[in-house]
Amino acid sequence: MQQWCAARGIAAPAQIVAESNRGEQETASPAIRATLGVAAEEPLTFRHVRLRCGSAVLSDAKNWYVPARLTPAMNTTLETTQTPFGTVVRPLGFHRERLESRRGRAAECPAGTVLSHKAVLRLPDGRGISFVAECYTRANLAKGAG
Fold first, then answer.
1. How far apart are CA 23 and CA 137, in angstroms?
2. What DSSP state is assigned to residue 143?
3. Closest CA to 116 of 107, 129, 124
4. Considering the domain boundaries, does residue 44 fall inside one?
């Protein structure tokens, strides 16, 4: 996303910041737990962020992740900084499996969404570490938006 921001001239410098509402909680559905391969009693952490580049909000994302499958340092970084999830967990060598993509707004997305994705991030051994619902905004379409 940072490369996209730079290429489109949305902000200079093109740095992605994850603004989160740390007090917000949303329970994972049984379908999300099944996708991640976790039992009902296994802890999941919820993180709702708006990914911003400069003043432009590019994405609104809801993320449920398995803290036990991350390092303690990764969990601390996610709890205390504005670093995007993918940047924090990149050392795990995950791959992204897109589950759904649609033009426009999915039910989880706010007004103004132009593209919606649902995806799971998986470790090299196939275990899920994160389920994400992403809602991309109109700011992605404009050159020099920020």
1. 23
2. T
3. 107
4. yes
Domain presence at residue 128:
yes
User: Tell me, what's the pLDDT at 146?
Assistant: 44
Q: Burial-class residue 104 by CB neighbours within 10 Å (0-12, 13-18, 19+).
A: exposed
The CATH number given to whatever domain includes residue 121 is 3.40.1410.10
What's the pLDDT tens digit per position in 51-95? 888 888 888 999 999 999 999 999 999 999 989 999 999 999 999
Question: Does 28 reside within a domain?
Answer: yes
What is the Cα–Cα distance from 12 to 29, expressed in whole angstroms? Answer: 39
Q: How many domains does the chain have?
A: 1
Backbone φ and ψ for 36, nearest 5 degrees, come out as -80, -15
The predicted structure's pLDDT at residue 45: 96
Q: What residue numbers bound the domain in which 101 lies?
A: 2-140
pLDDT of residue 131: 98
Q: What is the pLDDT of residues 10-58, one digit of tens each?
A: 778 877 888 887 788 999 999 999 999 999 999 999 999 988 888 888 8
Identify whether 145 is part of a domain: no
